[in-house]
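Data card: per-record layout.
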Amino acid sequence: MFLPKIHIRQLRCLPKQLFLRQFCKCASQVPPEVLEELEQGFEDMKECDSKSLLKKHLTKERFDKLKDKTTPTYNSTLLDCIRSGLKNPDSGVGIYAPDPEAYSTFSDIFDPIIEDYHGGFKKTSVHPPTCFGFGSDFPNLDPDNLYIVSTRVRCGRSIKDFPFNPCLSKCDYNVLDSIITDALLNLSGEYSGTYFPLCGMEKDKQQELIDSHLLFKEGDRFLKDAKATRYWPTGRGIYINDNRNFLVWVNEEDHVRIISMEKGGNLGAVYERLILGENQLSKQLEFSRDKRLGYLTFCPTNLGTSLRASVHMRLPSLADDKAKLDKMAAKYNLQVRGTRGEHTDAEDGVYDISNKRRMGLTEYEAIQEMYKGIRALIDHECQEAAKACKK
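The structure for this 391-residue chain is written out next.
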């Protein structure tokens, strides 16, 4: 088993954990109170005006088939997967995987949601091998800095032999934090930097990092209801390189979020930095990867490449008609969000626009698809601006 160096004070809790995970793979019975909450939540969801993929695909037949199941190692239930979606009818997706085994144990609900979200990735589909390609293939999208404020590319990773947030103990968080930070502090060259644990971080420092769009925020209700914020801020933190253009989030939604960013629209440079940074980390950490689904993550929207390339950009003409912007973005498999991401508003007319598909295509193809889509949005905006000048 892959077991990186960890602190002696955290070694005490490992033998029991590893023994249980390797040898005690026996599903347990779903407690009556969990079944009761599931039944009530399912009935409430049927009556509410939810547009979530969970409501769309969780039929009565599927519900009855899955409600008594648990995952072999971690005993996660269907409720652990859909609790957040049941409590938040405004969820776009409404389901999370509490542990890697959930994707197979509850495949009857995960598979149709994955196919719907990722544009036809069927239960018989197989995600291709990793292929990053070269960032130099993508010239600057906005060399005159007229539309794009900043560019960011990130990917999520989970550490092999650990469950996802809802199943992590406080000790697990500390062990993961130690394993991951040991690797981060070995980064060299332009990736050299400093790790800032959330525990003990001054509030002013925390807010400064949030305001600079570097640090994640606490209090996401969707993650909270999925039990993904337990023991906060234990084991959470952020690594920032000296140039402040390469970040790693530790134990926020996924075990690891690798992020490359900079001002302007030079997607190729940002992508190349991510490729080389991920490569350095993958030599030190063993990431969870499934033969069919690709890289495994807490949220099924991030499976496969787990790659999300986004720009903060202003599109004055398109933004006047949000429905038109959304329709055009969908044509190129792009997703439009508020300035600070999902479930936020556009601040000062700045939208976060990113690739939506992450499965069934390589990392290179995902970036290529996003590049073409953003190029098309800019071209359309230029045409609209030219029309306005003629009036």
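Known properties of this structure: The CA atoms of residues 198 and 237 lie 5 Å apart. The longest strand covers residues 148-157.

See the next section for split statistics.
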